[in-house]
Structure to design on (214 residues):
C-alpha cells in the first residue's frame, strides 16, 4: 500500500514540477514579492508592516492560483491521456491512487510555498534584519500551507467527477464562501427567521477558512 502511494506521489510531483505554467507562475510570484521592497521604501514609517502584509498576501494568492490549477488539472490529465486506466488496471485500490495524487500535490505545494517563503524571508531580512522574523510569521506561512492542502483536497474531489474548469470553479466557490464567514454571521444576526436558518446551514456546512488566517 505505502509503496504504491509513494510511487504515485513521486510521479505526480515530478510531472507537476516540470509543468512550465507552474514555473511561470512561481517566477512571477517571486518577482512580485521583490516589489515589496519598493512598496516598503515609499511607505511612511511602515516599512516592515508593508513588506510582511504584501509578502504574505502574495504567497497566499499565488498559492491559491497554483493549487487550483495543479489540483484541478492533474487528475483530468491522467484520465484524458488514459494513464490512470493503465494504473488502475493493476492490483491497486482507487483510494490508494487518490491518496497518492493528493500526497504528490501537497509535496508540490510544499516545494513552491517554500521557495516563495524563502524569497520573502530573505527580502525581509535584507530590509529589517532578524528581529522582523519571528515564530508568528513562520506559523502564518504554515497555516497558509495547511489551507492550500485543504483546497487541494477539495479540487481533487471535484475533478474526479467534473471537468477541469468546473472543478476549479467549484473549488473557488467553496474557497470564497469559506472566507466569507464573517459576512455570513452578520447576515444570520440581521436576517429574518427563515433566511437566518439558510445562512446558519451555510455557515456550518462550509469550512470556515478564516481560521487559517493568522
Amino acid at each position: 500500500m505505502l509503496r504504491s502511494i509513494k510511487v504515485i506521489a513521486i510521479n505526480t510531483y515530478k510531472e507537476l514540477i516540470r509543468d512550465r505554467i507552474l514555473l511561470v507562475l512561481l517566477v512571477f510570484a517571486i518577482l512580485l514579492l521583490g516589489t515589496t521592497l519598493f512598496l516598503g521604501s515609499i511607505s511612511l514609517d511602515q516599512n516592515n508592516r508593508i513588506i510582511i502584509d504584501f509578502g504574505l498576501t502574495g504567497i497566499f494568492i499565488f498559492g491559491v492560483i497554483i493549487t487550483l490549477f495543479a489540483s484541478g488539472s492533474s487528475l483530468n490529465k491522467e484520465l484524458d491521456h488514459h494513464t490512470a486506466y493503465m494504473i488502475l488496471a493493476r492490483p491497486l485500490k482507487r483510494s490508494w491512487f487518490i491518496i497518492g495524487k493528493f500526497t504528490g500535490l501537497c509535496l508540490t505545494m510544499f516545494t513552491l510555498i517554500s521557495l516563495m517563503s524563502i524569497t520573502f524571508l530573505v527580502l525581509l531580512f535584507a530590509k529589517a534584519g532578524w528581529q522582523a522574523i519571528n515564530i508568528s510569521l513562520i506559523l502564518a506561512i504554515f497555516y497558509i500551507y495547511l489551507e492550500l492542502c485543504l483546497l487541494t483536497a477539495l479540487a481533487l474531489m471535484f475533478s474526479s467527477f467534473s471537468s477541469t474548469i468546473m472543478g476549479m470553479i467549484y473549488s473557488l466557490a467553496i474557497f470564497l464562501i469559506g472566507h466569507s464567514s464573517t459576512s455570513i454571521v452578520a447576515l444570520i444576526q440581521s436576517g429574518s427567521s427563515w433566511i437566518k436558518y439558510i445562512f446558519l446551514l451555510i455557515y456550518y456546512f462550509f469550512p470556515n477558512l478564516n481560521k487559517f488566517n493568522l
